[in-house]
Amino acid sequence: MMTFVECMGTHELLMAWPIVRQLRDALSENEYLARVAAARREGYQLFVLMQDELPVGAIGWRIVNDLASGKSLYVDDLVVDAAERSRSFGSALIGFARERARNENCDAIRLSSNLSRVRAHTFYEREGFDRRGYAFRLVLGT
User: Considering the entire predicted model, what is its pTM?
Assistant: First the structure.
């Protein structure tokens, strides 16, 4: 049975960590915990998808308002455990996001994806997302 658990405390965050680190492999566990805490102050929510009481996927999002898209549910993180892919868990995560976006009266669900994640792009398009452009980043030195 599939269930979604919001990662409110350290226990849930650590339960999600083995899944999330497959997407955010440059982060240490401590950096992950600190970044989630900081992001929460800006409305970030993280959920873990459980199948028969085992974590199989995770999704993190925030609600944003901007001129380009109006009110959107912005997906920061979406990952299915590598051993569990192609079992409809990704579609379940997107379905969960759709439901939340509708409940929040959002105009869209948005996300960005690394250029190297070609399989993920195919998945997003299959789920109804359209490619809108490129995402750019300027890393600032310290």
Answer: 0.92
Total tally of structural domains belonging to the chain:
1
Task: Give the domain range for residue 26.
Answer: 2-126
Task: Report how far Cα 27 is from the mean position of its chain's Cα atoms.
Answer: 15
Q: What is the CATH number of the domain that holds 16?
A: 3.40.630.30
CB 22 within 8 A of CB 62: no
Q: Is residue 142 included in any domain, yes or no?
A: no
Asked if the structure places residue 136 within a domain, the reply is no
Contact in structure between 56 and 84 (CB atoms under 8 Å): yes
pLDDT by residue, tens only, the chain of 142 residues: 899 999 999 999 999 999 999 999 999 999 999 999 999 999 999 999 999 999 999 999 999 999 989 999 999 999 999 998 889 999 999 999 999 999 999 999 999 888 778 788 888 889 899 988 888 888 998 7
